[in-house]
Amino acid sequence: MGRAPCCDKATVKKGPWSPEEDIKLKEYIHKHGTGGNWIALPHKAGLKRCGKSCRLRWLNYLRPNIKHGDFSDDEDRIICNLFATIGSRWSIIAAQLPGRTDNDIKNYWNTKLKKKLMHGVQPYTTHMHNHCSSMKQQQLLFLTASAPAAPPEAACPLSLQHLSSPHDYSHHYISSYGSSNSSTSLLSAAAAAGSHGGLLNGEHQTMSTSCLDSDGGLGLYFDELCATVTTSSGVHGQGLGMESFILGGFQLQEDHHKAMLVAGAGAGAANQLNQQYSAATSGCYDDEAKPLVSVTGGGDGAGGTSSSFFYGSSYSNDDES
DNA sequence: AAGTTACACAACCGCGGACCT
DNA sequence: CAGGTCCGCGGTTGTGTAACT
């Protein structure tokens, strides 16, 4: 049994909107509103358009207070952070950027931002493939958390190397990468996440193996698709001898679209990071409006003078036999 | 100047979920 | 509870234009 078409495609006009059509639609909505029924609207407004097309035109172009044009650095940053946090949930990201539409942001991401961020992270791809060669790389996010005194070029919080649909993860991999001395605090943080079961109180506490590769990268593997972790905890880093904290929780939702990264912050930068990133993740809530993530970020544990990296990446091993 | 390519943006399509009957 | 309808979302395609050869 097929789905009934939303409109008669034979009589409906497609393609770019003319100024006359825009005026008709605008005037109708100003006078009558949408009436809660987009399907009936074009007929009432005298438009030979599909209701969905009208809705799209209104929401993305004609609606008041729509912002067009270049995105600011702040907007870039928010998009980067939210993409790292929730993936391609454009409507949620758009909700954090007044005047921007999901379509706008999606286009901006696909055409500009992604390319922009892809530059400069090539080495890490190699790094990842070296010790995870058997896994199919599904999504690789590079997140750069800038410490307060970090130089401007470190301020962009996210670089992205390889993105594809975040579906069908069967492994989630969280690793940390540090520049200069910050790496140790992040490694410690990640180690703490792996070694403290108390951090996770979800249905499945499935953090399994933590591993160190040859050049000191550390990864934590999640062998379960549906880990649900909603708490935020402070965990004192152990095992690597650093004063580090895990701030925030993460969630791998049932639909496993999300792999949230738990960030480690050096003791000296924890508060700043909390402030910096809480805004970036504020749009991420579960069905009961509980925050899914409170903090992501990484900082320089030794004084906040250098930038540091961490990245969360998700892999699928569905090509493994 | 004409043809080709690359890019940016607008619009379309199909699916999932909410809601209604 | 099942089926139908509509809305909203995200992925994809189409179109116009600038840049390049």
Notes on the protein architecture:
The chain has two domains: 44 residues; 201 residues, no CATH class. The chain is elongated, with a radius of gyration of 22 Å. It contains nine helices and nine strands. A six-stranded antiparallel sheet has the order 2-1-9-3-5-4, sandwiched between helices. With 321 residues, the protein is of the alpha+beta class. The protein binds a DNA duplex (21 and 21 nucleotides) through helix 3 and helix 6.
Task: Map the helices and strands.
Blueprint: H1 19-32, H2 41-45, H3 51-62, H4 73-86, H5 90-95, H6 102-118, H7 122-131, E1 136-145, E2 158-163, E3 171-177, H8 182-195, E4 207-212, E5 218-222, E6 233-236, E7 244-248, E8 263-266, H9 270-278, E9 308-316
Antiparallel strand pairs: 1-2, 1-9, 3-5, 3-9, 4-5, 6-7, 7-8
This protein binds a DNA duplex (21 and 21 nucleotides) through residues 1, 3-4, 6, 14-17, 37-39, 50-53, 55-57, 59-61, 88-91, 102-104, 106-108, 110-112, 165.
Q: Counting H and I runs of at least 4 residues, what is the number of helices?
A: 9
Give the amount of beta strand, in percent.
15-25%
Q: What is the arithmetic mean of pLDDT?
A: 49
Number of strands: 9
Q: Low-confidence stretches at least 5 residues in length (pLDDT < 50)?
A: 120-321
Structural class: alpha+beta
Query: What is the rounded Rg?
Result: 22 Å
Q: Summarize the amount of helix as a percent range.
A: 25-40%
Shape annotation: elongated
Kindly, what is the distance between the CA atoms of the first and last residues, rounded to a whole number of angstroms?
37 Å
Q: Major sheet, described briefly? A: 6 strands, antiparallel
In which order are the strands of the major sheet placed? 2-1-9-3-5-4
State the order of secondary-structure elements, H for helix, E for strand. HHHHHHHEEEHEEEEEHE
Q: How many domains, as an integer?
A: 2
